[in-house]
Each structure stands twice: as C-alpha cells, then as structure tokens.
C-alpha cells in the first residue's frame, strides 16, 4: 500500500523555505508511530530539512543529482518509479514529501494520512488538491489547540474510491 502522509494548512500549505509552518508535537508522534519500521520516500529537499535520518525507517531519497551523497543506510534514486522499485514487495510505503513528490504520487496512492492544521499560512510549497470524486474521508479526529499546540488540527484518513 502506498500512503501519502502530510500536515497541511487550510489551503494545502506544506511549508516555506524548506521548513514546516507549525510545531505540533502530537502530529510528530502520530507521524513516528505510523511510519516507524517502514520505507519512507521523499525528495532531496525534504530529506535535507531533517537534522539527521529519522530512526527506524528506511529513507529513499529522490534527487536529480547523480552524485548525491546520502548517509549510510539511505537509498538514493532518480525517479518516483525507481523509489517504488526499491521497496520490498508487499511492504507498506509512505511518501512524506515534498510538494513535487506528492504531486507525482497522489494518482498512484491508496491512502492519504493528512493532518489538517486550522490556519492560513504563507507558503511556497503545497499539497495537491484532494479530489472528493477519487478520495473518501474514512476517519477524522479533531485536536483542539492547547498549551503544546498553537493551532487546532484534525487527523484525516482518506482512501481511494
């Protein structure tokens, strides 16, 4: 199964200047619990936004740079197709960004795990529109803002129709 996992603002904002637009500890915990033990596919810029590779996950990095030097244990490929080929058969895989990789992969995804952040943000990177004719919202869990979360947000799960 191919799952796209992202946190997005009201207008599908993902980030600006290769940085997240919010800090939501419960979203980080959810992301970790969902993706741990799996292969994660990302673009080079997304990978470089991390201080180091995320633990307990196999990183597949898509880059046009044929000489890209990634840390040991990371897999470097040059297309989405090659990234998917690098995942062992019958394994779940998570696409974690960025905007261009989401655009390339949304048509072949089986599931979308979205954290919908209740806010409008200035951004330069966006998640593709979720077409209600192709995707059905199957789960929605609201989380109000609190002392750890400056914004309310909703965990949403969509499955391809």
What does this structure look like?
With 161 residues, the protein is α/β, with parallel strands linked by helices. The protein contains 4 helices and 11 strands, in the order E-E-E-H-E-H-E-E-H-E-H-E-E-E-E. The chain has helices at residues 25-35, 44-48, 80-85, 99-105; strands spanning 2-8, 13-16, 19-20, 39-43, 58-62, 75-77, 93-97, 111-117, 125-126, 135-143, 153-160. The strands form 2 sheets. An 8-stranded mixed sheet has the order 6-5-4-7-1-8-11-10, sandwiched between helices. A 3-stranded antiparallel sheet has the order 3-2-9, with no helix packed on it. The protein is globular and about 45 Å long. It catalyses: (6S)-5,6,7,8-tetrahydrofolate + NADP(+) = 7,8-dihydrofolate + NADPH + H(+).
Tell me the layout of helices and strands.
Blueprint: E1 2-8, E2 13-16, E3 19-20, H1 25-35, E4 39-43, H2 44-48, E5 58-62, E6 75-77, H3 80-85, E7 93-97, H4 99-105, E8 111-117, E9 125-126, E10 135-143, E11 153-160
Parallel strand pairs: 1-7, 1-8, 4-5, 4-7, 5-6
Antiparallel strand pairs: 2-3, 2-9, 8-11, 10-11
Task: Write down how many β-strands occur, each being a DSSP E stretch of 2 or more residues.
Answer: 11
- What fraction of residues sit in β-strands? 35-45%
Number of helices: 4
| Helix-strand sequence | EEEHEHEEHEHEEEE
Are there runs of 5+ residues with pLDDT below 50, and where? none
What is the CATH superfamily label?
A: Dihydrofolate Reductase, subunit A
Tally of structural domains: 1
User: What is the general shape?
Assistant: globular
What's the CATH C level? Alpha Beta
* Overall CATH architecture: 3-Layer(aba) Sandwich
Largest sheet: 8 strands, mixed
**Rg:** 15 Å
């Amino acid at each position: 199964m191919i799952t796209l996992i992202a946190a997005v603002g009201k207008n599908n904002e993902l980030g600006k200047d290769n940085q997240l637009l919010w800090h939501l500890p419960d979203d980080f915990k959810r992301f970790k619990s969902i993706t741990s033990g799996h292969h994660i596919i990302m673009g080079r810029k997304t990978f470089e936004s991390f201080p180091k590779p995320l633990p307990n996950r196999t990183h597949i990095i898509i880059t046009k740079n044929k000489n890209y030097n990634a840390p040991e244990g990371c897999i470097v490929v040059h297309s989405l197709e090659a990234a998917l080929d690098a995942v062992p058969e019958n394994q779940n895989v998570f696409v974690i960004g960025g905007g261009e990789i989401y655009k390339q992969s949304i048509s072949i995804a089986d599931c979308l795990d979205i954290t919908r952040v209740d806010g409008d943000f200035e951004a330069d990177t966006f998640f593709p529109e979720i077409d209600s004719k192709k995707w059905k919202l199957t789960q929605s869990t609201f989380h109000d803002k609190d002392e750890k979360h400056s914004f309310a947000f909703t965990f949403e799960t969509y499955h391809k129709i």
